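Example for tutorial group B:
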């Protein structure tokens, strides 16, 4: 979702996703203009259980490591499920795929009430920070 709605503490990540979004939106129109039969599907999943968080570099220059690994929950999407959903959307030539439903709701809220969305994102970011701090205590990294 970092290519649709920006979150705090992920400035570089979100900037790169917004850039990719612009690139593929432009590419979609160019392909249409050239009358090709190529479609472009943009995927916006929520958390996917990858090694991204483990490798995320903190302000102290160290990766999150075990703390990042433990951040993931059983409710988060596996890479296999994410890939299957993306392939299904691409086969249907969907313009976009936003998953899960909370992401779709968030986009609508952001469109209609951007200030409210900013506050909600800040609240979620604080909850994530508190969870990271709690996980640090569990693995003895405080």
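The residue assignment follows.
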């Amino acid at each position: 979702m970092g290519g649709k709605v920006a979150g705090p503490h992920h400035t570089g990540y979100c900037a790169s996703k917004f850039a990719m979004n612009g690139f593929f939106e432009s590419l979609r129109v160019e392909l249409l203009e050239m009358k090709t039969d190529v479609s472009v599907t943009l995927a916006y999943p929520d958390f996917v259980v990858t090694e991204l968080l483990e490798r995320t570099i903190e302000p102290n220059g160290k990766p999150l490591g075990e703390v990042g690994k433990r951040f993931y929950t059983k409710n988060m999407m596996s890479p296999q499920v994410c890939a299957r959903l993306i392939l299904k959307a691409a086969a249907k030539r969907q313009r976009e795929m936003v998953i899960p439903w909370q992401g779709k709701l968030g986009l609508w809220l952001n469109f209609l009430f951007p200030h409210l969305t900013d506050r909600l994102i800040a609240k979620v970011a604080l909850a994530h920070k508190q969870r990271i701090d709690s996980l640090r205590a569990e693995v003895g990294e405080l």
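The mean pLDDT is 91. Compare this with the pattern of hydrophobic and polar residues in the output above.
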